[in-house]
Amino acid sequence: MFAGFWVIFNLLAMLIQMGPASGTADLRNFMYLTGQHPLVPVHLVETQYITHMALAFMPSSIFNRNSNNDADGNPLGWPMFTSIERTRPLVNPKTKLLVAIGGWGDTDGFVKAAKTNHSRERFARNVAAMVEATGADGVDIDWEYPGGNGEDYKQVPNEKRTWEIKAYPLLLAQIRKELGPDKILSAAVPGKPEDMLAFTPDTMPSIMNSVDFLNVMTYDLMNRRDSVTKHHSGVLNSLMAVDAYMAAGCDAQRLNFGLAFYVKYFKTEHEDCLKRIQKGKTALGCRTLLMEDPDTGGDLGRTGAFSWHDQVPHDVRESFTRAQSAGTYDEHEGGYCYWDEKEDLWWSFDTAETIVNKKMPLVLQSRKLGGVFAWGLGEDGPEFAHFKAMSRAWKKVRDDGWGADPRNSSMVRDEL
Q1: Could you tell me which residue ranges the GH18 domain spans (predicted)?
Q2: Which of 13, 70, 148, 289 could pair covalently with 161 via S-S, beta carbons 3.0-4.6 A apart?
């Protein structure tokens, strides 16, 4: 039975590798595979549509070491939750496998690496050694964020990180030099314009000289630093993000926009939200409670998130049930949302339907972007409804071109 399964799996892979006769053949379908949810749905044909997968994360500090051997000369290795070798059989043979370096809160390793020519050379040399040792097809650099506004922005003010804006392109250039032209170098970059400190018309040309493409994190666009309700992965704020990169000089074909396979909620000020609704408005834009410690930047416990694979936290379970059944799509700014008057919670998340009917045509197709990505694949288990809908819509655009209606597919209709 197992052997028969793999025969079918490989046959599907061969058919998919043949590619479309027309359309947008190079359209990227990029997935992060995380250590928190390391699940690859090998039973789904949509897994064969993945063009790139990044294993997340390897800490940036590893690449600042002076030697990759211990005192006895033995290799120190490159620890990660899984390996390139174990992952390759789970995806299409043509899928490019990358190692994602960094992630939210992992800034110190990048800061140390970026400081001097010597530190940049050491970091890049170690990145290339890791790629060679693991058999990866490249790396995805997730420095969140060069120039400031990272997790430690209260401890290290942005004015002390100004130098990183010029150092960031230099670090990328050194990584490209060590990797050579045939390996993939991508970067995950902020989705909120106020966080794009290192991505300007002055720096973008040199950044794009080094990277193959950027993954624009068009999610978490509402976070605990906000004071009013927003869509955390809405259409309008996603367009603002990708438009900002294009205005800075990045070609649309080298941008992937991001989808979040998780749910977010925020505690709101009851009276302010209620007044807006009584005036015939929505709860979009009403005040939240203070969500971040003004001195330390620490989380005050008034916002939360969980993936589709996680169990819903007990204290918000009833509220989330109401959000799923009574939530609505905001046609003005583009996002599925719900304000729970009973518990004063603002909910923001994507449904499979909004991804297909709104996100793909209004963001991917309207801007003719180079692709789409999601954080993260396993986060959408065990049903993988969002992943399936997204990948089927992606395939429709890839096969039929920019004018395709991603909703006009029997596979997508069946899923929705």
Answers
A1: 27-397
A2: 148
